[in-house]
Amino acid sequence: MNLKHLFYFWKTARSGGVVKAGEALHITPQTISGQIRLLEESLDTQLFSREGRALELTPAGRLAMEYADEMFSLGAELEQALRHYPKGRPAEFRVGVSDAVPKSLAYRLLHPAVDPADPVRIICREWRLDRLLAELAIHRLDLVIADSPIPPSVDVRAYNHRLGDSGLSFFAARSLLSGRDQPFPACIAELPALLPGEDSAIRRKLIDWLDRKRLRPRIVGEFDDTALMTAFGRAGVGVFAVPSAIEQETLASGDLVLLGRAEEVRVEYFAISVERRLTHPCVLAISEAARAGFESLENNGGPTPAAEE
């Protein structure tokens, strides 16, 4: 079987016709049709049925597509693997970070990829998850860090690799708590609140938790960026929640009070890759370090929440 013929068949099926495939490959539709015909003759099997101008995959064609998808996906993985060993300059590691992931947590997750003995240039992009996955699909990124797996609505051939999870910790500025003595979590209903943006997995789980607790805080702000939400929280604008994995550094400045924790609310973090089996050395370092030590990122034996003192 000629792999070039198979590639033209695969490209035609994915593009929706020989005309679009020809435009993508910069060759004539007649050339593509001829190559597909040779493939069908070599296999003695019809791969497309023709309904007018439309092409439809036959049952044999659908089976061939499953194998072709695997073969060309592996080819893309091979290209990626070889690209990580360039000669004469540091290898590039291109990673996308969903804007819903706190910057400090993203740094902790990515730091194991920095190896002085094997220099690598890290190129980070921050964007909405759907945009990052589109970049991953065309191999402009090696990895995407996100707070949710690939959404069902996104048609991308990629794989979720779970890194770990974290509970939520609630904070407020000392000035905001003046004269208030309600215990946690009832105190949240008396305070203005800041929420993560709509694309954040934390937001959905936080709202569900508030509903279960029958808490109805007054929402005064919504933020895609956790650092910006924290800055507003430090200014006394409202109570807010962040992953317990970054609890200690959130408290480090001394101007915030830990109100309490919702350990039952678990926010998961994923490394999303085109690789089914992780082979990229940077991705392996991130995955292994996260799985071994993600729980240690959370507060263990830290300060007692104010409402429990």
Structural notes for this entry:
By secondary structure, this protein is of the alpha/beta class. The protein contains ten helices and ten strands. It has helices spanning 3-15, 18-25, 29-43, 59-83, 103-110, 129-137, 201-212, 226-234, 247-251, 281-297; strands at residues 48-51, 54-57, 91-98, 120-127, 143-146, 159-173, 192-196, 218-223, 240-243, 256-273. The strands form three sheets. The protein has a six-stranded mixed β-sheet with strand order 4-3-5-10-6-9, with helices on both faces. Helix 7 links the parallel strand 7 (192-196) and strand 8 (218-223). Helix 1 crosses helix 3, helix 1 (3-15) crosses helix 4 (59-83) and helix 2 (18-25) crosses helix 3. The relative contact order is 0.14. The mean pLDDT is 85.
